[in-house]
């Protein structure tokens, strides 16, 4: 069993094994059962690769929103302030030598504060439609997130967008990336198994524009001349 001292609350991926939290003398500790490394390491490398790409695409999305507000002024409705979770890989080795083998790999994320909103699945990765329960409780956020998908799809030249949007009302976690199936390479796992080709193909058909799309001047699929028309 490994014992790690941490300076801030974190969450470890469930793939890493059993996790228990402890408070020893007002210091946060997490106890993690050892696991076999090779399979978990390769899986977590793929998952961890999704995080910075998602954050980069999200940063682009926010920069577009900021630009449009500078040109158009603030919209007559609130724009949710959201970001992606901070995360990274922690890798331990069998020894301190240069050629030592990997012993364990952990995907570590900041611990989300779910005290006010709970954990919410806003949109999954198989449909462009928000989850019904989320629509009932968080309509504005659901509309905002579907708009961000439309914006990403449009600005990337119909190449990419972020699905599986979940977390709290301010921090999103565990993202997926969906790309145009034409980018597929045989025997190469591009952004993991959450990259569902059918979801990409259905996006223009399932997405419904809302006031965010209109205000921020994202052209409708009919105006773009896609198959959704």
Radius of gyration: 20 Å
- Widest sheet, order of strands: 5-11-10-8
- End-to-end C-alpha gap: 58 Å
Spans of 5+ residues with little confidence (pLDDT < 50)? 1-7, 14-35
Task: Specify the overall morphology.
Answer: globular
Number of strands: 12
Beta-strand residue percentage: 15-25%
Organism: Mycena pura
GO molecular function, one term: ATP binding
Keywords: Kinase, Serine/threonine-protein kinase, Transferase
InterPro entries: a-kinase_dom, Kinase-like_dom_sf
What report would you give on this structure?
This protein is an alpha+beta fold. It has helices at residues 37-72, 132-137, 139-155, 197-206, 211-215, 221-224; strands at 2-6, 10-12, 19-24, 27-32, 83-84, 87-93, 102-110, 120-123, 160-161, 165-167, 171-173, 178-179. The strands form 4 sheets. The chain has a 4-stranded mixed beta sheet. A 3-stranded antiparallel beta sheet has the order 1-4-3, with no helix packed on it. Strands 2-7-6 form a 3-stranded antiparallel beta sheet, with helices on one face. The longest helix is centred in the first third of the chain and has 36 residues, at 37-72. The chain is globular, with a radius of gyration of 20 Å. The termini are far apart. 23% of the residues are buried. Residues 1-7 and 14-35 have low confidence and may be disordered.
List keywords for this structure.
protein serine/threonine kinase activity, three-stranded antiparallel sheet, transferase, alpha+beta, four-stranded mixed sheet, Kinase-like_dom_sf, 229 residues, 6 helices
């Amino acid at each position: 069993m490994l014992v790690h001292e941490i300076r801030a609350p974190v969450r470890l991926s469930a793939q890493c094994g059993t996790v228990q939290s402890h408070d020893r003398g007002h210091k946060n500790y997490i106890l993690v059962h050892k696991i076999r490394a090779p399979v978990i390491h390769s899986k977590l490398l793929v998952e961890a690769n999704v995080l910075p790409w998602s954050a980069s695409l999200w940063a682009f999305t926010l920069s577009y929103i900021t630009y449009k507000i500078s040109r158009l002024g603030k919209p007559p409705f609130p724009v949710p302030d959201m970001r992606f979770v901070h995360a990274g890989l922690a890798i331990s080795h069998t020894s301190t030598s240069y050629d030592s083998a990997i012993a364990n790999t952990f995907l570590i994320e900041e611990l989300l504060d779910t005290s006010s909103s709970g954990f919410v699945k806003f949109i999954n990765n198989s449909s462009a439609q928000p989850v019904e329960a989320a629509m009932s409780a968080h309509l504005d956020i659901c509309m905002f997130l579907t708009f961000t998908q439309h914006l990403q799809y449009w600005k990337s030249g119909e190449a990419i967008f972020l699905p599986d949007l979940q977390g709290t009302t301010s921090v999103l976690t565990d993202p997926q990336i969906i790309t145009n199936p034409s980018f597929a390479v045989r025997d190469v796992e591009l952004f993991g198994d959450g990259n569902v080709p059918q979801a990409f193909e259905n996006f223009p058909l399932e997405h419904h524009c809302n006031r965010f799309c209109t205000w921020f001047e994202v052209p409708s699929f009919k105006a773009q001349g896609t198959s959704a028309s």
